[in-house]
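Think of the structure tokens as a kind of shorthand, similar to the way a musician reads notation: each symbol stands for something richer, in this case the local conformation of the backbone. In the example below we present two proteins back to back. Begin with the first one, reading the sequence and then the tokens, and try to describe in your own words what changes along the chain.
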Amino acid sequence: MFKRTIIIVLDSVGIGEMPDAAEYGDAGVNTIGHTAEAVGGLKLPAMTTIGLGCIAPIKGVECPPAIKGGFGKMAELSRCKDTTGGHWEIAGCPAEQPFPYYPDGFPAEVIDRFKELTGAGGVLGNIPASGTEIIMQLGDEHVRTGYPIVYTSADSVFQIAAHEEVIPLDELYRMCKIAREQVCVGRHAVGRIIARPFVGTSGDYRRTANRHDYSLLPPRDTMLDVLQASGIATVSVGKISDIFAGRGVSRSYPTKSNDHGMEVLAELIDGGADQGLIFVNLVEFDMVYGHRRNPQGYAEALERFDRQLAGPVSYTH
């Protein structure tokens, strides 16, 4: 029926809680609904035409009588709250076991092994934290000692932050690979190891676009593997290739922002991209606005995405 399918993931843009939300401290969540309330309503005409306002009440977004597409709200089968598990499930491979989470930081056995194998003289942090906040809190000490900043979050992640002039990117990536392959294994096999480089000076530290994710391999074939084995192109835009550890991906286009991701998508469409699947992740919703609980920024990003979507959407009908 279709020569090309496009999946666009708005990372962290949720539309209501799951039945088990309370187990993750997420009772009552509804990111897009609460954002709309906080800013007095959203203007999302492109997504309105394909049924967004018919899924749940969203201030400013109506449910029109004529819809240009299908719409719905899905519940996740996997018992996890994580980018990796969610994307695996989108690709037909629900996570069989929940990933480990560390609300009190990583145990000594994990940190000690990390220090031993990487040669790091010590680590800073080892707490759940916002990535933007922890570099402001520990950035000066990191620059002074040279120790990497290790932290986690509500997701199943082992994150390593380092100033690019203190721990060069190649060394940071080496540490992450060691953490992926030799440290966070077995019962400590978190969903992702994430390199979080930053730059700047005291009081003005800023994360860069040189982030890199090191994910677990899916436990069995995903739709990406099946399509690729059938000779059908699978194109990754954003961090999709990282999430699937590169498996089943024909071509990958890393991106630096939501805008960049949509620009790449438009270029692929205008250029007559290969028949097959284009799988896009727009991470700024989560990384820039969600983590900082910034409803105004979130709303502006949603409305900007909607304007960008108005172009590519016309190609899909």
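Once you have a description of the first chain, move to the second and do the same.
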Amino acid sequence: MNGLRKPLVLFVGIALASWMPRAVNGEIAWQSELRTAHAKAESEGKLLLLHFYTDNCVWCERLEQGAFQDPSLATAIERDFVAVKIHAGKSPSLAATFKVAKFPTDVIVTTQGEAILHRVPPQSSVDYITMLAQTVDQASSAGLVAQNPASGGAKTTPAVASRGAAGSSTSPTSSGDGKLAARHSVDRDAVARGTTATQVSMRTNPLAAPTDPRTATQSAISSQIAKPELAMDGICAVTVIEKDQCVEGKPEFGVIHLGQLYLFSDQRAMDQFVENPEPYTPVLNGIDVVRFFEERKIVKGNYQFGMKDPEHGRMFFFADEAALNHFYNQHTRYTDAAIAVMTKAIAEANPRR
């Protein structure tokens, strides 16, 4: 993910932020763990401010000794944000998820995980406060937050957006720990009926023998196109990988791949997927890799329990939260082996390759 939800349950299970003492006496009230910060932000209708720093960082130290000592900055943060200070060296996966390469870096996200600011913060407290205010205004204008009259701060909007008759709705994909965002249910049959899809592969199961496109009958192909399974609840897989956002695909941009119907936000995204579907396809076609390798069982994963692995940025789906958390803690045991299986399956499935 920078970074995907939650369909999920946002920030389920894993506390990633390094321990930091709670600030008192007018100082910035840095939270000690991400789970707690998220719960607080959600209950208070605020945005999350993630401040990444590291050791031997001159500009990090200058912020600590300068702007962060200004009570007016602490007040501005407290009004609209819940702040978490994250040592990148102690939370490398979180830093990688948000593509933090410079220090210090501030990332502001909604409680649904949508990053709305990613930048090196200014050293001046006045400029810092201006940056925060502009971010709140930007988020409000984009419909990501709404003013909360009771608190005077920003109130984050729900993760689930209603699907309109025309156009698409967007919601975040990455929770900050690589987990994917929650999605509402859609009428899969209705979407499939309204889609004229391109067939880019004949194989429906990445672990089964591939169908030979030279011998496949047209009726079999038509049947597969007519009743495909809707992949990822209709979310555009390309925007998940490239932009860390959940954008609902449109029926006119449909592709059948490995027996599933993928929808895309626009022609460019669809063409990009058709050209090279592998980076955008859930590993093992959405099969729970933990159950597959540990129990030798083929169990369908759920987009609700999904995440992008930090090494490859590939999507993995799981049957439940327990499997997701197990993978999160031990993902290096599974990623390379699972991706190797998937790569072979896609190569065999795609008649153009």
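Compare your description with these statements about the second chain. The chain has a mean pLDDT of 74.
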